[in-house]
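Input chain follows. Return structure tokens only.
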Amino acid sequence: MGRRTTIAEAALAVLAQQGPLELDELTRLLAEQGVTRAKRPTASVRQAVEREPRVALLLDGRWVSVPATLEGAVLTHILDEEEVATESLSVDPDLALLDPLGVHGLPLASGGAWSAVPKGICTAPLAGSGA
């Protein structure tokens, strides 16, 4: 028997497919899939998405999949001397949106994956660094 999908994983998939959703609509879709059978499904879904670093709450109250939002985006950052010397990238403040994604690894278009260690530092080879 396979591992059961968590509410957070299912919410991430629904948000990636549907785009930003209000909590009530996200809860309805997850309940239809049988992901939650809680007596208070909205509370269960809220708790799950609040704890999931790849899901963010927009200012208008809708929840969004951060990886889906960033799909195809090109982000830029000017390296400072320390970043060049250490072949690391400080994501604060320019690329702070990437920080929670480092928890699960973020595939890079140039190859490899980025992960945050320590908080707010990217240690993947940087484009043009010769690494």
